[in-house]
Amino acid sequence: MLRVSVPAIRIALGLLGALLAAPPAAGQGRFTAAPCWFTPPPGEAARCGIVAVPERRDRAAHRSLTLTVAVLRSTAQRPAPDPVLYIDGGPGASPFGLDELSEERMDGWWELTAAIRRTRDVVLFDPRGVGRSQPDTDCAELDVLAGTPRTTAEERAALEACSTRLRAAGVDLGSFTTPAAADDVMDVAAALGARQVNLIAVSYGTRVALEILRRHGPRVRAAVLDGVYPPDVNAEEEEAWLTHRALKRLFDDCTASRSCRAAFPDLERRFLQLASDLNALPATVADADAPDAPGVRLDGGALIAAVLEAMAGDEAIPRLPALIDRAVRGRPERLAQHAPAPRLGDPDTAEGMAFSIECRETVNAAEATRAANNRRRWSVLPGLSGDDTGRRVCAVWPVGVQEPGERLPVASTVPVLLLSGAYDPVTPPEWGQRAAVTLPRSRHVVFRAAGHGVLLGEPCALDLAAAFLERPEAAKPPTCASADRPPAFEVR
Question: Model's pTM, two decimal places?
Fold first, then answer.
């Protein structure tokens, strides 16, 4: 791999950012107030409305899209002028939720942001094409297939019906890109009158935040990136390694723990043997909590996917060795509960926006040779084929081509706090380390017992983020004593 010095990268990317950043379009910067759809708790206040952004910044006189915004007001008498903007993951996720539970979700946001709002407002918003923003790119045609067996032909027909409907309504599917999302965030900031902002981003949102640093760095005071997804990695190419790395972390930690090793000897070999056996002869496993419901079809790939899904959340990690041991002994019901639902038809995702970005920047951008080489090198189970859902979607989903410059690492001197979970099977700590190379004022904290997204699962991480945003230049940054503790595996 060609290696370039950090100063050279910084100069080159600074020039690239200047070239890529589009000038503000006419009519930008307006916030239109609207009633909030939720009730703030006693003593709290919110400001809600919409912000219009251009659908395409590279074309004159193009139509506008609207983003729904909620400002959770600071409890300070004189809040700092630089609010915190939260950028959700996905792509296609809404911080408010896409269902009737949005009021309940908002209750959680008041609690989660309390420490930050002691000095600053916190801004939540639905990205373009998501949730309450307009147009809505949810694929109802796919939602009706969720949770039911479907053929490839039915899946393709639903995809084509959704893309046809959206385009007939005038939606430009090529307008959903990470650079557009980055510019949208700063349009929201400008509409609220903020000359400088702070960022908190999670998962895919960290890629948007990094693009903001590339394009609008001087307008960012500090950033917290949780589950770092840098632009110079491709998840499609790295899928086999991601699986290998996550499983190795689990089995190595169990072996290093005297109690786990004694309770579940030779766990890795027995797990892989079970996966191989299920690949040869899949089983239908009943739901442990609903025996009359349709069972889960468990083959080797589904078994591994269940472990990875459980690993993504913090709560199940201490129980994973025991769950795997039970499965090996013929009782896979509890582990099978973690098997992920089919990728298509997720009610919590605006599929139109998600497909457009994933096809443009991950699936279509992946190098087939590199992905094949990684599968040969890192596959945990011979003959295990990867999920080709992305390929099926992108074969029929019309999008543009990603610009090569978007795949360069982001260099910035903005203070950045990088957070990673050691068990994260989606955005591993190695990606945070990779991003840190060109972020000279960054600090990377890895939580040894955490999965994907530490801010929601580690209370200390929230305190760490709040303290960092208060004093990003502190000579002695705050620490989390719990970050270095490995999982306490349950052995009973």
Answer: 0.90
